[in-house]
Structure formats: structure tokens, C-alpha cells
């Protein structure tokens, strides 16, 4: 199955806690179309208590079998990249996954241990994704399966409602039961 691997940088915003008991909030902010020379887990800006951090880079893998999903993403009106993070401390947070597949992103969002956010897809990544879809997409026509009509007059071997003595569990283990043994039980 053809695939393409792209390396993207990840930016996140850390907001201060609302109460003195809170820990603050770390949310993915954007993806960068190329990995910058900045080391991972670096604070970039701070404005009114809101910090912007560069968390590092991660590979995004485009699979040819998912081109229909990528096409749905591109035609959605707001193409996005789903970023999954683990941790609330930007100096230690891990980038778990990047995906352009909206259905995989939805699946990631169901994990309560992850912080998942759909961030805007850069224009250069949209162009690369569109090229990948055009190169590898194959339309699969939908075929609705039809059930065969049941013939009420056909003699179909069906399981009886009451099992005969030879068909019971004990008989299948190699010990046939006779009528006398059945009475003892």
C-alpha cells in the first residue's frame, strides 16, 4: 500500500489556571509545514499569561487506502490536522499522533487521556495532500448486498428446539448417554 511520510512541527498554547487550584490548560494551536531548527519543548512567546510553545516535530503518514477520508477533509470547508497530545506540562508533553484523517481524529478524541484538537491545515500541506489524493485515489462503487428470498417450502436443515440424547454435550465428549443415565441426573 503506497504511503507518504511528512514531518510537521507542532505549536501549542498554555493558558494559566482559572483558579488557584487549577493546573492550566495546554491545547494544540497549529502545525508547521516544516520542522524548524528550534529545539523541542521551547517557549516561544508569552502574552498576558498565555504562553506559546514549540512542542517538537512528528511524522504524519498518508496512506493510499485513506484517500477518501482525506478528500472529505479537504472538501469540508475547514481542512484540519488532528493533533493528539499527552500531558499538561508543555516542557514534558508528548505528541502522540498527527493525522489528516477526520475519522481517525474522531477516534482519538474518545481517549480521555489525550488532548485532541483539530488545527487548521497549512496551505502547503493542503496542496501536498491534494496531490497525494489525486495520485492514489481509486473510487470504489457502493454495492448494496441483497438478501436471498427465503423459500418457505425448502427443506432447510435447522437445529431442533429440543436436542436428542445423542446430540447433548455428554454425547459429544465420547460418552453416549442412555435413557437410564438421563433419569439419574
Question: How would you sum up this structure, described in words?
Answer:
This protein has 185 residues and is α+β, with helices and mostly antiparallel strands. The protein has one domain (3-136). It has five helices and seven strands. The strands form two sheets. It has a four-stranded antiparallel β-sheet with strand order 2-1-4-3, with no helix packed on it. Helix 1 crosses helix 3 (123-136). The mean pLDDT is 87.
What's the number of helices? 5
- Distance between the amino and carboxyl termini: 60 Å
Strand content: 25-35%
Going across the biggest sheet, name each strand in turn.
Answer: 2-1-4-3
Order of helices and strands: EEEEHEEHEHHH
Number of strands: 7
Task: Bin the helical content.
Answer: 10-25%
Number of self-contained structural domains: 1
Walk me through the topology.
Blueprint lengths: L2 E13 L9 E8 L9 E6 L2 E14 L3 H8 L5 E7 L7 E6 L2 H8 L5 E6 L2 H14 L32 H4 L6 H6 L1
Antiparallel strand pairs: 1-2, 1-4, 3-4, 5-6, 5-7
Outline of this structure?
This protein has helices at residues 67-74, 102-109, 123-136, 169-172, 179-184, and strands at 3-15, 25-32, 42-47, 50-63, 80-86, 94-99, 115-120. The chain is of the alpha+beta class and 185 residues long.
Labels describing this entry:
four-stranded antiparallel β-sheet, alpha+beta
Amino acid at each position: 500500500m503506497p504511503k507518504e511520510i511528512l514531518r510537521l512541527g507542532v505549536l501549542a498554547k498554555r493558558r494559566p489556571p482559572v483558579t488557584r487550584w487549577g493546573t492550566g490548560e495546554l491545547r494544540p494551536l497549529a502545525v508547521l509545514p516544516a520542522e524548524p531548527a528550534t529545539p523541542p519543548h521551547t517557549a516561544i512567546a508569552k502574552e498576558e499569561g498565555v504562553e506559546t510553545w514549540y512542542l517538537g516535530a512528528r511524522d504524519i503518514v498518508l496512506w493510499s487506502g485513506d484517500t477518501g477520508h482525506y478528500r472529505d477533509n479537504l472538501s469540508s470547508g475547514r481542512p484540519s490536522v488532528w493533533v493528539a497530545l499527552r500531558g499538561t506540562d508543555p516542557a514534558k508533553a508528548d505528541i502522540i499522533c498527527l493525522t489528516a484523517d477526520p475519522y481517525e481524529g474522531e477516534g482519538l478524541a474518545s481517549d480521555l487521556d489525550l488532548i485532541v484538537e483539530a488545527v487548521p491545515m497549512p496551505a502547503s500541506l493542503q496542496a501536498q495532500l491534494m496531490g497525494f489524493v489525486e495520485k492514489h485515489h481509486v473510487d470504489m462503487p457502493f454495492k448494496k448486498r441483497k438478501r436471498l428470498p427465503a423459500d418457505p417450502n425448502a427443506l432447510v436443515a435447522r437445529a431442533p428446539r429440543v436436542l436428542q440424547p445423542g446430540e447433548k454435550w455428554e454425547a459429544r465428549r465420547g460418552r453416549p448417554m442412555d435413557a437410564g443415565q438421563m433419569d439419574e441426573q
